[in-house]
Amino acid sequence: MSDKNDHIKDLSRRHFLRNSAITGVAGAGIAGGFGAGAMMGSRPAEAASNNDHHVEPGELDEYYGFWSGGHSGEVRILGVPSMRELLRIPVFNVDSATGWGITNESKRVLGENAPLNGDTHHPKVSYTDARYDGRYCFINDKLNTRVARIRLDIMRADKIVTIPNVQAIHGLTLQRVPKTEDVFAVGEMIVPLNNNGQNMDDTSEYWTMMTCLDADTMEIKWQAIVDGNLDNCDTDYTGRFVAASCYNSSRGMTLPEMMGPERDWTVIFDVPAIEQAVANGNTTTLGDSPVPVVDAREQAHDGRNPFALYVPTPRSPHGVNTMPPEGKYCVVSGKLSPTCTVIEWSRVAEWFDGGLDDPRDTVVAEPEVGLGPLHTTFDDRGNAYTSLFLDSQVVKWNVEDAIRSYNGDEVNYIRDRIDVHYNIGHIKASLACSRDVDGKYLTALCKFSKDRFLPVGPMHAENDQLIDITGQQMKLVHDGPTYAEPHDALMIRADQLNPSQVYTRDDPYFAETVAMAEADGIELETANTVVRDGNKVRVYMTSVAPNFGLTEFRVKQGDEVTVVVTNMDNIADVSHGFAMVNHGINFEIHPQQTSSATFIAEKPGVHWYYCSWFCHALHMEMSGRMLVEPA
Ligand code: K7E
Ligand code: CUA
C-alpha cells in the first residue's frame, strides 16, 4: 500500500505526460482549448466494493473479455474479473504455436501473398437484437487495410478481406438490430480516389470512405465517400444508422493543417438510403474495384445530403459510443476538446426525414468532462464513463443531468473521478455495447504503465486496469500488464459463448484439405500413407497419443512435401503438434482436426519430426523421421 509520499510522487508522474502532450500540440495553436477541465479534484482509489472480483484458483470467470492485440496483429481472450489471459487468437500475424500463417488452412484464410502482420484495434462480437450471440468476432487491421472475421466456436479466423479504395481501416462496428448483417469499417487516411500515382499532388482531391461488408459472406456491399477523414464508429439500436467521428475535417496533410478547425464532424450515415441508391444503380466504381460507391460528400448534393449528416463536433472527436440498453444517445468524445457531444438518435432520424434544419439540433448535451476525452462507456444506471488521456483519469458523469445542464439547469453531472495508471485510451464496461449492460466492471486500457510493474527494459507493459463500478465511487481492483498493444476490449457474459471442445470432422475450416484427400482416394481418419504426384508428395497420417500414424516416410530432394495430419484423439484438450525440424514447420492439430503444411525437402538426409504439444507421458517419444534421398 502506498503512503502519503508515494501519492505525491504519483501525482508528479501522472502530470508528466499531460504537460508534455499539451506542449506537443501547443505549436498547432490549440493550447487554449485545454482551459477548464476538472470540475472536481481527483481522488485516490478507495471505496466500498459490491463485487467479489477475486477469482480463486480453479474458479471460472464471470465474463469472456475480447481484447485487440494492437500491432501484434492478434486478438486475445481474457477472463474477467481475474484478467487472466486465456487465449491468443492469431489473425494477421504468424504464430509459431498454432501454425497460423504456416498451415495451408490458415494460408487459405489469409490469401495469397498476404502481409503477415497487422494492427488490430476494435474487436466486435456479433449481435442478435443488440445482444451478443456468440457467433463471430470481427476485427480491423489498420496496418494493411483489412477486416477479419473470427469464428467463436473454434476461435480461428475464417475470412480476411482487404478493403479496396481506402487506406488504414481503423474504426469498426456492427449492425445490432435485428442482427449483425452489416459490418462497418472506417477508412482513416485520405488518398486520391483512384490512387494510381497519376494524381498525387492535388491534395484537395484526397478522400476516404465508409465501407459496409456483409457479415455472412464478407463481401463488400458498398462504400460511401465522405468529407474529411474518419476515425471511430458505432451503430444505433434500430439498424438504420452508423456514426463515425472525423478528426481531420480540413483534410490536412500535416499536423498543423489537421488542427485547423474549431469543430470537426460526427458523420452519420443513413444505411437504408445508401442501400436504396445501390439497388437503383446510382453508384460509381473506382479503378478496378467492382464495389459500388455512393458519394456522401456535401458538395455532391444540392441541398440535403440523403446519405450522410455532418454534425459539427468540437475538435478532433475520437470515440463514438451508443448508450445502452435502449440506444437512445450516441456519445462522441472530444479528444482535443474537454467535452463529450451527446447526440440523440431519434433526432438524427428527424433530420434525415426533413424535420430538423440545423445538424447541431441533433445534439442534446455537451458536458465538460476533463482533458483528453477519448472513449466513453456506460453502466445500467444512466451513467457514462469517459477515458481522459491527458488527465489519466476515468470520469463518471450522468447523461440525463448533462442534458439538463445543456438546457440551462444548474446541475452537476459529474459523479466521480478516479486516477488510472497512466494515460488511458479505450475504456469498456461489462456488456456496455449491448442491451445486457450490467454496470459491474470497467476495464481501463492504459497506454503507459511506467512504475506499476517491474521494469523489463526499454519496452514497458501496457496496463489494463479493472475498476469496480457497482458503487457510487469507482474502485480500482486490478492492474493487468498486457503486451503491445490492446486498443479496445469488450466483455460478454460467460454463458453467451459456447466454444467447441473438439472439432467436427465436417468443419469447413479444413474442408479443402479433406477434398484434396478425397481426390487422392484417401480416408483421412484411417490413412497412413504417401501419395506421389510428380515431384509433389502428399504424406497422410493420423495422430493418437502418443503416436503418429507414420514413424517414417521417404521423399526425394527437391520434392514439394505436404504433410496432412488428422488427430483421431477425441478427448478435449488432447492436442498434438507437428513440428518438422530445420524446416520452419510447426502446427496445431486439435482433437478431430485435420491440419496440413507444405514445404520443399531441400536437404538430403534424416530429418526428425516431433509432436510439439505436450499430450502424454510419452510425448517426447511421439516423433518420426523424414528420409530425404539425394536427387
Ligand atoms: Cu482510441 Cu484505435 Cu480505438 Cu486506440 S483507438 S485508444
Ligand atoms: Cu502428441 Cu505431444
UniProtKB/TrEMBL annotation:
Main location: periplasm
Domain of life: Bacteria
Pathway annotation: Nitrogen metabolism; nitrate reduction (denitrification); dinitrogen from nitrate: step 4/4
Keyword Ligase among record annotations: no
Transmembrane segments: 21-41
InterPro entries in UniProt: CcO_II-like_C, Copper_CuA, Cupredoxin, N2O_reductase_N, N2OR_C, NO_Rdtase, Nos_propeller, NOS_propeller_2
An annotated Gene Ontology molecular function: nitrous-oxide reductase activity
Keywords for the protein's UniProt record, in alphabetical order: Calcium, Copper, Membrane, Metal-binding, Oxidoreductase, Periplasm, Signal, Transmembrane, Transmembrane helix
Coiled-coil ranges (or none): none
Family annotation (Pfam families): COX2 (PF00116), nos_propeller (PF18764), nos_propeller_2 (PF18793)
Quaternary data: Homodimer.
Family recorded in the similarity comment: In the C-terminal section; belongs to the cytochrome c oxidase subunit 2 family.
Protein's recorded name: Nitrous-oxide reductase
